[in-house]
Specification:
Elements lengths: L2 H21 L19 H8 L6 H19 L5 H29 L1
């Protein structure tokens, strides 16, 4: 097998893994069970645990943009990392900005 083809297969698998991680949903507890209310002193610690970077749309969409850039590079027949970076950065910036707008709008509603 050609080395470029193997490299393309491995990088495509990595891109798919990144896309899967970006779109993965956090498990929710069943509706019947409720968490006991924490002490007011511990409330800050539990808030910090709940807020993950993957819960923000800007981070998710930026990762999707990187994956789209890599897959666009493969679709055009380039397998070099320079082309992948060159395509991934603009996609990540554009989709990250869209995600930032979504995050700001959802924060205003709360």
């Amino acid at each position: 097998m050609n080395l470029d083809i193997m490299q393309g297969i491995l990088l495509g698998g990595l891109a798919g893994l990144l896309l899967t991680l970006a779109l993965r949903k956090q498990p929710r507890p069943p509706k019947g069970e409720s968490d006991p209310k924490p002490d007011p002193l511990e409330r800050g610690a539990t808030q910090a645990k709940k807020q993950s970077l993957m819960n923000r749309w800007s981070v998710r969409l930026a990762l999707v943009g990187v994956v789209m850039g890599i897959l666009t590079t493969f679709g055009q027949g380039y397998t070099q990392i320079g082309f992948m970076i060159g395509f991934a950065i603009p996609f990540a910036l554009i989709l990250g900005a869209i995600g930032l707008v979504i995050d700001l709008m959802s924060r205003k509603k709360k």
